[in-house]
Design goal:
heterodimer, A: 434 residues, alpha/beta, Aspartate Aminotransferase, domain 1, Aspartate Aminotransferase, domain 2, 2 domains, 13 helices, 35% helix, globular, B: Aspartate Aminotransferase, domain 2, seven-stranded mixed beta sheet, 31% helix, 9% strand
Chain lengths: 434, 522
Amino acid sequence: MLAKIGVGSVDALFKDVPQAAVVPLSAFDLPDTQGELEVDRKLTRMAARNTAAGAAPFFCGTGAYKHHVPAAVDHLIQRSEFLTSYTPYQPEIPQGTLQYMFEFQTQVALLTGMEVANASLYDGSTATTEAVLMAQRITKRPKAILSGGLHPHYAETVETVAGLHGVIARAPVTPGKAEDIAALIDDKTACIVVQSPDVFGLIRDLKPLAAAAHAKGALLIAVVTEVVSLGLLEAPGFQDADIVACEGQSIGNGLNFGGPYVGLFATKEKYLRQMPGRLCGETADASGKRGYVLTLSTREQHIRREKATSNICTNSGLCCLAFTIHLSLLGEEGLTRLARINHAKASSLADKLAAVKGVRLVTPAFFNEFTVKLSRPAADVVDMLAKRGIIAGVPASRLLPHDPSVKDLLIVAATETTTDEDADALARALAEVL
Amino acid sequence: MTMNNQGRPSQAGHAEILDLPTISGDRGLDHEEPLIFEIGREGHCGVDLPNVQLSESRLGGQRRRGPIGLPGLSEPEVIRHYVRLSRMNYAIDAGLYPLGSCTMKHNPRLNEKMARLPGFGDLHPLAPQSTTQGALELISELMTWLTTLTGMPAVAMSPKAGAHGELCGLLAIRAAIEARGEKRNRILVPESAHGTNPATAAFAGFVIDEVKGTADGRVDMVELEGKLGPDVAAIMLTNPNTCGLFERDIRHMADATHKAGAYFYCDGANFNAIAGRVRPGDLGIDAMHINLHKTFSTPHGGGGPGAGPVVLSAALAPFAPLPLLVHDANGFRLIEDRAQITDGARPFGRMCAFHGQMGMFVRALSYMLSHGRDGVRQASEDAVLSANYILHSLKDVMSAPFGDGPCMHEALFDDSFLAGTGVTTLDFAKAMIDEGYHPMTMYFPLVVHGAMLIEPTESESKESLDRFIHVLRELALEAKAGKKVRFDGAPRLAPRRRLDETAAARKPVLRWKKKELPQAAE
C-alpha cells in the first residue's frame, strides 16, 4: 500500500502535522491493548460495584423509570442492519430505518394527541428546551414561564440554552399542589411549560392552562417524563397543548444511568415548519412504489447552516427504534393494561406508606409516582435504607439542594416491576428508621 | 435438462424469469412490508400483562376518555415486521460504508455486551451515589482517557452528540468571556465547516463570519488574521478539516486567536485520524468535542444515539457545565448543583437532565481498553493509510482537487472527471448502490464542485479496499467512455429506485392516518 502511495512509511503521511506536535506513545499514561477476556473481566467488576435496579426493592423515578422491556426489543435493535447503519441520507438503502421512523412519528402523534411529531430528539430535557425555543420563534416573544413542578434538571437545561434567546421565569415550587401559573402570564410571555404528572407526581389539569395561555397569545408546552402515563391519562393534545415534549425512556429503553434516552416532540400542524429535528415523510420512488425519505430538511443545519431552526444533527435512532418496537408489542390493549397496573401498584404502595408513622402522602392525584413527607430529612433516610439493600426513591433535595423546604420530601415510584414484597419491605424499613 | 435420480432438475433454470412480476409482489428474499398500522387490528397484543380493573383511581379526573388508536400485533408479527424492515437497510456489518466525515468503522460486539451489564444498563441516574460507585468510576476512567489522549486538563461529559458538544464548548467560551467582563459576539467559521458549526454558533447567540479557504484546501491565514478583532469570541475549526487535510498552520492560528483575546474551538469529528499521535492540547486548542460514535466506535444506530464529550483548556475548565465529578477519600461524588461547589468552579449551566450518555461511555471505554494506547494509534495510522491508498489508486481516473496529498483519514474527489459525460456526482454515487456499496458522502464539503468524500476507515482489509477501488475505477471509466446505462436512473437493484424528495417536501405526509370512511348522508 505504501508503494502505491509512493512513500516509505506511514510517518510520511503525517508530514503536514507540525513535528513538534507529534508525540511518542510513552507520552500517554494509558494501558496497552488487552484481550476481550481481560476487558470483559475489568468492566464486569466495575458493573458489580453498582446496585442494579433489578437487584433490590427499588423505587426511583423522577424522569427515569424501571419498566420491563420485552426480550424481543433488545434482540431486534441489535440486528446489524439497524445497529450499524448511518442516518438515512441515501433513502434507497435504509428504507428499514425510514419506515420505522415514520411509524414512530405516527405512534408519538397518537400517544400525545397531536397532529405531527418528529423522529425524536436526544431526551426529554433537550426536547423541552427545543420546545421553548420554538415557542419563542412562533410568538416572537422572549419569555418562558416554567412550572415549579417541572423537573429541576429540565428547568436548568431550558435556562442554560433558551435563556440565551429570552427570559426564563420559574414559578414557585409547590409540592403536591398546582401553582397559579396562569396568573404569571403577561404580554411578553411566549409560553408556559407545565409537566404532568409533575416532578412530585401530581397530575395537572392542562385544559384551563391552555385557555389562559391562548387568551394572552402565549402557547402551552406540555411535558411528560413518564410516557406510560399516556395509557391512562388524557393526552395533552386533547387538552389543547401547542407543543408536547416527552421523555420516551419508559417504553423500550433501559435506565442506563441517565442515557441514552429518547425525546418525543409533537405539535400542531400549523407549527410544522418551526419544528426542530429530523422528519421522515412518505413519498414514491421512480417506479411508483411507496417509500420514505427524510424531508423538510430546509429547516436543518446541513442545508440551512446558521439559519437552521436548531443545530441538531442527529435523532436518537436506536432508542427511537426500541420505543417503536415496544409500543408495537404493547398496542392499545397492552399499553392500557400496563398503565393500569402501574397506577394500581403505586396506589397500593401509597396506602402502605401512608400507614407508617412519620410518613404523610403529599400528592393527592398521581399516576405511578408520588411524594411523601417524612419526619426527618429524606436524603438521610435514603442513605440508611440503601445500607439495608432498599433503594427507597429520590429525595427531593437531590434535585433541589438549595431549597430547604423540600428536605423532608421523598419521591417514590412504583411500576409493573414492583412486587408486593418490595412494597412491604419499604414500608417496614421506613417504620424502623422514622 | 439434467435431472437427478429423483427426477428433480439439477441445473439452474432460465434467466428470463427474473423480469417476470411475481404474484405476491415480493421477490425471493426481498419482501415488501406494510406499516404496523396496516398489519395490526383491535384486541391483539404482543405482551402478556394481566388485565387489572381499577375500582377506584386517584387520577384527579384526568382519565383518558377515548382510545389512542394504536394497532394490536402479536409478538411473531412484530418480530417478522422489524426483521423484514431491517433487511431493507445497508449496514457496516454488511459492507464497506465509505461515508466521508461519518467514520463508519466496525463496532466491536464486546462493547454491546458490556453496556448491557445490569450494573450499567439497569442503573438509575439518581440512585444513591453509594450504590453507583462503579458507574462513576467508569466515567472517571473514560475522562482520564479523553483528557490524556487530547492533552487537555478537563472534560465535560454530558453532551449527547457532536452538535450538543459544540454548543457546550461555545457556552463555556461565552461564560469565560463574560467572566472577563467583555462582550464579544462574532465567531469565525471556515467555509469548509460542517453545517452544525454555524448552526451551533447561531444557536448559542453569536454572529457568524465565514473565512475563505486557500487553493490547497486550508484556511486562508491572511483572511483569518484580518478578521480577528476585539469582537471575536472564537474561531471554530475542524482539524483534520472536512477536505481530509491537516491544517498545517494550526499552531499559528491558535496563537493569533489567543493574541486577539479569542478562544480556539476545534470540531473533533475527525479526531480519529490523529488519536494516539497528536494531542490537540499541544496545538493550542481551548475546546474540542469528541464524537464517541466516530473515533471510539459506538454504533451509529441509524442516526443516534451519539455522545459528544468536550475537552476543555485550563482557561475554560472552570466553566464546565453541571454535573461535575469529584473523587475524594469517600469515593466518587457528583456535584449536581452550584450550591455544592467548594472549589470556585463557575459552571455555565446544564446541558441535559442527568449525567450524559452512559451507555455510550461504557462502549467507548470498552473500545479504548481493548485497543490500548498502541491500538488507538494504530487505528489512526491505518485509517490514514487506507485513505491515501484510495486517493492514489483512483486519482488517475477520478479528480483529486488538492493533488497527491497526503490526505488524512478521508480522500476527497470533485466531479471534474465527469465533465461532459452527462453523469453527475449523484448518478455516480447511486450507481455504487447497484454494485453493492453505500455511496460516499456527496456534495460536501461545499468548497469543491460535486464533492465525493471517501472515508474507508481502518476496518477494511487491503482486499476489501482493492475490490472497492476496482468498482470505482470501472464506473469512472464507463462514465468517461460515455456508457451511461449504469448511471441513468440508478439504483435499479436496491429495495427502492430514486425517491421523489420534492413531492415529499411539497405536500408532507408525516404520519399514517386511518382512511376516512365515506360520510353518511345527513
